[in-house]
Amino acid sequence: MFVSTFGWLEQSQVGQLVRMTPYLYPVLMSLHVVGIAIMVGPAFLVDLRLLGMGRKVVAVTTVTRLLLPVSHIGFAIVAITGAAMFTGIVYVVSKSAASPWKFGLIVVAAINIVIFHKGVYRTVSEWDARVGAPIAAKVAAVISMVCWIGVIFAGRFLSY
User: Fold this and answer.
1) Which of 76, 109, 128, 131 sits in a 20 to 30 Å window from 121, CA-based?
2) What does residue 131 show for φ and ψ, rounded to 5 degrees?
């Protein structure tokens, strides 16, 4: 299904550029890893705060206000570099058993983010500082951490 849907990308000018330009793919991969660090690092800190770490020191709203914009920058880097790399290796990705895991976990993580922000985070004023986050927030934090760890592992397995 992957090749029939996205195979044309590999033959596109961008796909050929990614494959044929010396060192472009490793540069994209390196930027992708940097983007992952910029995205996942702050997200994990938010998740750890939701799980109770530092609750007597810093409010949830402070952590999210300061760290989520950084995470969004990382996401932009990851999305751009990931899409560019994908154009050059559609066939390889389509044959990897890790692909459904990586893309499936990204979808689960995205759904988790939406549910968290549209749901329990709307009541953050009630549990923002010095109070434990509700179980729904903690579950969202665990799901987030598990998903992003899984995405990273699956991404590494795409080549094997």
Assistant:
1) 76
2) -125, 145
